[in-house]
Design goal:
Blueprint lengths: L6 H18 L3 E6 L2 H4 L1 H16 L3 E6 L2 H10 L6 E2 L2 E2 L3 H25 L4 E5 L6 E5 L8 E6 L2 H8 L3 E5 L1 E3 L5 E3 L2 H12 L3 E6 L17 E3 H9 L7 H13 L4 E6 L5 H7 L6 E4 L2
Parallel strand pairs: 1-2, 1-11, 2-8, 5-8, 11-13, 12-14
Antiparallel strand pairs: 3-4, 6-7, 9-10, 13-14
Helix pairs in contact: 3-5, 4-5, 7-9
Length: about 290
């Protein structure tokens, strides 16, 4: 136990969190988990602690995860060299088998186990289970990379109603039984939208939207959808941040109250965002 915080201070901290706890109890919060927070073991433990704590106080958390580095590692072990076009993994038939094995198997079940060790009750799913994500080919050049055409949220809702934390890997299928690799941010936006989530939190390896990408002190804490679109025109949102902000706007348009792009490298960033005044990262809101 941290002895630098007195019992009185600890009680004060909990009291300050109370209005935020009341705001989110019984509400759906979707968390997209990936990047460095997934690779660093200490951060991974802290993310699972945050999610278990939110679940214990009554927040309906849905965890959606990727696992790009683990897929690449497994491909190399099996003698396949990862290839990317415009940041998306080229996914032939053999690669999509590896994606399914790593995401829906190894990564998904390890997160479920970790959550349960932290005191949560979790169930692992993939986008294929219960037809949660139906997809089609996005671009012939990419192979089995999917574009989402439909989300069925009922299996997720059923688990939340039974008081489980759904942990969802981003592989999907079509009606012919083909399996597709789905971009995790896109899947999170579609699922959060389909569920009418109160919040979507997208964990990434940057502080949020920065006016100067090399200076973390230029973080933009809040932005509306129309302001975000202007940031594209001004070149402030560029490169790898473009698809992330696209997903934020997509989620808002689908009915999510607000979306936060958050630095997953900061310990307990999820609790800072949901249960304190300060927050973390950039919040994208409707008008």
């Amino acid at each position: 136990m941290n002895t630098s915080v007195s019992n009185a201070e600890r009680a004060e901290i909990l009291t300050q969190a109370l209005p935020y706890i009341k705001q989110y109890v019984g509400k759906v919060v979707v968390i997209k988990y990936g990047g460095n927070a997934m690779i660093d073991e200490t951060l991974k433990q802290q993310v699972m602690e945050d999610i278990a704590l939110l679940w214990l106080i009554g927040v309906k958390v849905v965890l959606i995860h990727g696992g790009g580095p683990e897929i690449s590692d497994m491909m190399k072990k099996l003698g396949k060299q990862p290839q990317f076009i415009d940041g998306l993994r080229v996914t032939d038939k053999e690669t999509v088998d590896i994606v399914q094995m790593v995401l829906a198997g190894k990564v998904n079940k390890s997160l479920v186990t970790l959550l349960q060790m932290k005191g949560g009750h979790a169930v692992g799913l993939s986008g294929m289970d219960g037809g949660i994500i139906e997809a089609k080919i996005k671009d012939e050049r990419l192979g089995f990379v999917g574009e989402i055409i439909k989300v069925r949220s009922q299996p997720i809702t059923d688990l939340l109603e039974k008081n489980y934390i759904p942990v969802i890997s981003t592989v999907a299928s079509d009606r012919q039984g083909n399996v597709y690799n789905i971009n995790g941010d896109t899947a999170a936006a579609y699922i959060a939208g389909a569920m009418g989530a109160e919040r979507l939190i997208m964990m990434t390896d940057v502080a949020g939207i920065l006016r100067d990408k090399d200076d973390p002190s230029t973080l933009i804490p809040k932005v509306t959808v129309s302001e975000a679109k202007k940031l594209y025109d001004d070149g402030i949102v560029s490169g790898g941040m473009i698809p992330k902000v696209d997903c934020c706007i997509e989620a808002i348009n689908a009915g999510v109250k607000n979306v936060t792009i958050m630095d997953g490298r900061i310990p307990h960033a999820i609790l800072m965002e949901l249960l304190t005044d300060e927050g973390a990262g950039t919040m994208v809101m409707g008008e």
